[in-house]
UniProtKB/TrEMBL annotation:
One of its GO terms (biological process) is DNA recombination. InterPro entries: DNA_brk_join_enz, Integrase-like_cat_sf. The keyword Metal-binding does not apply. PANTHER family: CORE-BINDING (CB) DOMAIN-CONTAINING PROTEIN (PTHR35617:SF3), PHAGE_INTEGRASE DOMAIN-CONTAINING PROTEIN (PTHR35617). This is Tyr recombinase domain-containing protein. It comes from Stichopus japonicus. Transmembrane segments: none annotated. GO terms for molecular function: DNA binding.
Length: 218
């Protein structure tokens, strides 16, 4: 990554953080470089969204997105090449490369002067640019697809639904099933290669999930 352009490093870091956290774009936009908002801990990094951030109507004073903890790849894989896809490693490179350039405390900045904070729409556009080569069919790729595939991959790998909801900041399983899981089942084969780990072959759903088809809005 030492020779990567700032634009490429920015998009790679954004994508890896988005995949590893399964957070929506507004939460990614709220990530900050303010003191104690990014803390490198043993074997991972903890990121705290700006406390003034309320990303959607379901984020009220009684339900706010929690911290994001992302483990290093080396805690899960001993394959040397896998470190290229480590979000923690990419984040360290990105912070180091932007330290003297940034004019904003927003984590993700435009990779050209005056290096202003990237907007939510810009983050969405970057994510779409990254995943577009891995999508197929007539449907247009969306930034939300990253969130859906990341969460669904965790589900198919056997991660409990409760843990997925907590990590991705969903209040109930209904939105996940109705708005993300169904679409992901169709798009998974084409897009799965863009995720750090492909889903396992077992498509059975753990118990406790509500039926799909809900009218809940994402």
């Amino acid at each position: 990554m030492a020779n990567a352009s700032l634009a490429a490093l920015t998009k790679k870091t954004l994508f890896l953080v988005a995949v590893a956290s399964a957070r929506r774009r507004s939460c990614l936009h709220a990530l900050s470089t303010k003191q104690n908002h990014i803390r490198f801990e043993g074997h991972g990094v903890r990121m705290v969204p700006d406390p003034s951030f309320y990303c959607k109507k379901n984020q009220t004073l009684t339900f706010l997105p929690g911290d994001i903890f992302i483990p290093e790849i080396k805690t899960m894989s001993s394959v040397a090449e896998d470190k290229r896809w480590c979000p923690v490693r990419a984040l360290k490179w990105y912070l180091n490369k932007t330290e003297k350039l940034r004019q904003s405390t927003s984590l993700f900045i435009i990779p050209r002067p005056p290096y202003a904070a990237a907007s939510k729409d810009t983050l969405s556009r970057w994510l779409v640019e990254i995943i577009r080569p891995f999508t197929s069919g007539t449907s247009r790729p969306r930034a939300h697809d990253v969130r859906g595939v990341a969460a669904s991959t965790a589900l198919f790998a056997g991660i409990p639904v409760e843990d997925i909801l907590k990590a991705a900041a969903w209040k109930t399983p209904t939105t996940f099933v109705a708005c993300y899981l169904t679409d992901t089942l169709h798009a998974e084969a084409a897009f799965g290669s863009a995720v750090m780990r492909g889903p396992v072959g077992n498509r059975s759903h753990p118990s406790g999930l509500p039926p799909s088809g809900s009218a809940t809005r994402c």
